[in-house]
Each structure stands twice: as C-alpha cells, then as structure tokens.
Amino acid sequence: MKNNIRTKLFVGLSLFTCMIVGLSWVLNTKYLENYYMKKKRESLIQYGKEIEHMFKNHEDHMDNEIERIENTIGGNITIYNPYFNHRGGMGFSKMGMGMFLSNKEMKEVLEGKRILETFLHPKFKVKFLVHAIPLEGDNILILQTSIGAIKESVEIGKGFHVYIGMLALGVGMFLAIWLSKTFTKPIVELNRVAKSMAKLDFSKKYEVKANDEIGQLGETINYLSNTLNHTISELNEANEKLKEDIERKRKIDLMRKEFISSVSHELKTPIALIQGYAEGLKEKVAEDEESQDFYCEVIIDEAEKMGKMVKDLLELSQMESKNTTIQREVFHIDELVEKTYKKYKSIFNDRDIKATLKKSNKNVEVMGDPSKIEQVLVNFINNGIHHIGGEKNINIYMEDHKGKVRIGVYNTGDFIREEEMKKIWGSFYKIDKSRTREYGGTGLGLAIVKSILNLHHSNFGVINRNDGVEFWFELKKYL
What we know:
Layout: H1 2-57, H2 62-73, E1 75-80, E2 87-88, H3 90-95, H4 103-110, E3 115-120, E4 127-134, E5 140-146, H5 148-198, H6 213-233, H7 235-282, H8 289-320, E6 329-332, H9 333-343, H10 345-350, E7 354-359, E8 365-368, H11 370-386, E9 393-401, E10 404-412, H12 433-439, H13 445-455, E11 460-465, E12 468-476
Helix pairs in contact: 1-2, 1-5, 5-6, 7-8, 8-13, 9-11, 11-13
C-alpha cells in the first residue's frame, strides 16, 4: 500500500512537470513571434500618434524626439513630401523617403488612409514593418523597423527555453521523489488510525507533527475518534429516548382513538334522530301535513348540524396539520371589530341583550388574516350569546395592552370552573351539554379559535369577571 501510493504520487508529479514544460515549449514556439509582432505594431501606432501630435503643434523638440524614438524601436522615421522637399531623422539618409511604399499606396496615404504592413526590402531582401500616417501639408510620416531583429530574438528565446526546460524537468523529478516520500508516511499512519476506528478501537491517536493540511487532517481524525467514542456512549441514552418516543406515539394513538370515539358519539344522536323520523315518514306515522312538515324539519335540522360538524372538523384538521396558510395583510382592526359588532345588532335586539362596544383608539393597524380574525371574534360573540345569563349584558372592547391590541368579549352568566379553563379549548369539550345541544354547538369552535390564534402567534385566554366570563386575544400592532 505504501509503495503503491508513493509510485502513483511520483508518476503523477512527473507527468505534471513534463506537461507544464511541454506546454510552455509549445506556446513559446508557436505564439511568441506573433505576440512580439503584435506588440511592435502597437508601439509603432502609439509613436506615430505622438509624432503626428508634435508635427501638428510644430513643436521645436520634435527632431530630438524622433531620434529618441528611432533608437527605442530600432528602426527609422521619415517625414516625406512627394511634391516638395523632405526632412527626416536618421533613417532618411539610409532608407530614402518611403522607398517601401508604391505610388498607389502613397496616394492612398495622402487621401487619409493609414498603412501598417510588412514589406520586403528590395535590395537586402529583409522584411520591414512599415507604418505610414498622413500629416498636414501633403506630408507623410513613415515609421519602419526590421522584422529580422524580431525573428532573431525569438530564436534566441527558443534556444534558451531548451535549457530552462531541461533544468525544470530535473528539478521536477527530484521534487516528485521527495514529495512522494514525504507525503506517504503520514498518510500510512492516518490509515492505521482509521483502521482501528473501524474496529471501534478509539485508543490509537495520530501524532501531529506539522501544522499543514495533513496535520489538520490528523487533528480531525483524532477529534472524530473522540466524538465517535462519546457518541457511542450516548447510544444508551438515545435508546431510552426512543422508548419515550414510542410511548408518546402510543399516547397519540390513544388520543386519535378518543377523537374518533368523540366524533362517533357526536354523530350518533343526529343520525338516530334522522333515522327515526325518516322511518316514521316511511311508515306514515305522521298522517297529517303538519306532522309530516315537523318530521322533515327535524331531519333537515339534524342534517345541517352534521354538515356543520363535518365542516368544522375539516377546518380544524387542516389547521392542526399545518395545511392551512393564512393570508397576511395590514388592516385596521378597529374597523373590523366595529363591522362585526354592527352585524350582531339585530340579534342583540331580538334577544333583549344589552350590548356595548368600547374602542380606545382609531385607525389601529395590525398584520394578519382579517377573515380568520373575524372568525375568532364571531366565535367569541356567539359563545357569549349562547351562554349569557344574569342581566344579559355583552361588552366588546378594544384597547392598547403593552404594545399590542387586546380584543375582548365579556358576557354576564355562570363562571367557568378553574379545572375546565384549559379543557374548553379542546375538541368536542362542552361545559353545558344540554345547552350546547339546544343551540346546535359542536364543541369545535374554541378549538378552531385556538388554531387560528396559534397561526398568528397571538396570546389568548379566558377570565372569570364579576358576574360573567371574558374571552380575549391579542395582536401585535403594525409599525
């Protein structure tokens, strides 16, 4: 295993070194000359612009600058006028007034065209890079430099690169041998520790000797060993927790069975009534039309109660299973409370209920689902109407409460016993079953309220007040 790792690492590093040297050779051989030529063209264009600017502004030091540029580019610069006289730098006497340009090309330059081409010297058979620029007064600026010097520099660079490549290969091979040996030893040691961990023996640890990646890996292996040892020791605790989860699941199953039993119990009475009155109609027990209408009304009434119960059950199930999403928006809670209160005015009057509405502020904005909040308020008001007693008063209020808005519904009547205050928020729980049966309650209203307010992350509760009971909930103000 050790030799295998070392061999693979050595071969890989050697191939990588050869690839880098080879790639460098190919790039140098194939693209160096083109790159050099590109830079030469760019320099001629740049110097041409500088001389053109000096000529246009008639600068006194232009001759010295032309001489400096000639020495920089290793070429010649000529300012030539084919119609009159000429003046130029050092190159004028050597090259002779733009001898590389034909009459046609001269004419094109005089018409405004700029030429940057490679030309062959007619006498020495040497290639030159020539840049011709039109100047004012039918003058032509000609910059020329030998390409032979470029090719010579490229050839020297290629020859020197051979020695660099050989040196790089030698150094690369040495480093490949040294690195493969250096990296193999700690990897083998790490493998030994890992094998012990696989056998659940966490006593062996890696001796960290360096603060590099391998040393960090060794520290990680040691940390992992300690963590696994600690984790395995905690498995017994996890098993105990699993037993608790199983017990919790058993209780949930029991609650589900109790829920089904409650639903069955609630449906048993209306089903029995519907069946009994339907059989009575079939057997023609009710012979007169008035009795038949009464039988039909009972059947319809009980069917409606069953339908309401099923609807409430579906809504409660969706909210408790998190399948219901509330449509949050900013709205005025005071307007919603007042609108709901006005809907019940006729009912209050019909039942001789003295109702009042008190609001501490106007234009109070909250964030929530207005339809769901209205459902909560309606449920509290209905609950107050159905359980009202004494002086038959219902008071609805809205007030500030520690940075929140508290809405409450108070009704006179019997108190709720302390042991029942938590139970009333559960499904099918009824304090007075005979009264609930009388107004058709399903025992699901407060359970639905609880789910809605939990979705809004709102506080809520019930309090026994003087001669009555108050249900309340809170909403955060929207800032």
